[in-house]
Design a protein that fits this description.
Shape: extended
Helix content: 25-40%
Strand content: under 5%
Number of domains: 2
Structural class: mainly alpha
Largest sheet: none
Low-confidence stretches: none
Radius of gyration: 26 Å
Length: about 220
């Protein structure tokens, strides 16, 4: 009799667990269904969005085609102009002399360093702050006397170096600017040449996103 009661209790507990799991699954499916119907796509984000992309955070199709990974072509639709003077452009690394460096860090792919919806450091970079040391460790190990004792994670986090644009710290720029006043005689903002086409993020359409951008 006691054995029968124990078996009954075990089955009852198992049944309750199964019912709980079923109810939770139904709740999750209902929640996702409601989000799909109401176009609340931000609940599907796997993590935070970088500050530079917040404007179109709810417009997944701005970067994604269905569930395909983001490609370089997608990034260049917005960033082509600023990459025109890229100090680490593709042309440099397609030179066979830098083949070994490519094996250490796949710099020809934008998402190697820039990846949305993951924990990021400043400037939208998701790699470790000492990523420069993958190729330039010798700089702080005696190759450059002016950098002796510098921290491996300070190249870009300290605001000195920008991976894509080194013009402001190039030898030529520093020589040309040496001795100039800290401030312009008459402070003024530079003229803006970029005219954005959109002033507001596109309207989200979750159904379109899940169909790979097709209506």
């Amino acid at each position: 009799m006691a054995k029968t009661q124990r078996s009954f209790l075990s089955l009852s507990a198992l049944f309750n667990v199964r019912n709980t799991v079923i109810v939770l699954c139904l709740l999750v499916m209902g929640w996702l269904g409601a989000a799909f119907a109401l176009d609340h796509k931000t609940i599907f984000l796997p993590g935070v969005t970088s500050n530079g992309h917040l404007l179109f955070e709810a417009s997944c199709a701005s970067c994604h085609e269905g569930f395909k990974p983001v490609s370089n072509d997608t990034c260049m639709r917005c960033h082509e102009a600023e990459m025109a003077t890229d100090a680490h452009g593709p042309k440099k690394f397609r030179d066979l002399r830098w083949a070994a460096e490519l094996e250490k860090l796949e710099v020809l792919t934008c998402t190697t360093c820039h990846n949305e919806h993951v924990h990021m450091f400043d400037r939208g970079v998701h790699l470790k702050p000492d990523l420069c040391m993958i190729c330039h460790e010798g700089i702080i190990q005696g190759e450059l006397a002016s950098h002796k004792g510098f921290s491996p994670d300070g190249c870009w986090t300290a605001g000195c170096h920008n991976f894509h644009d080194h013009r402001s710290i190039s030898t030529g720029f520093l020589r040309q600017s040496m001795g100039q006043a800290d401030m312009l005689p008459k402070p003024a903002l530079p003229a803006r040449t970029f005219k954005p086409e959109l002033t507001a993020p596109p309207q989200p359409d979750l159904g379109k996103e899940l169909l790979g951008g097709q209506a």
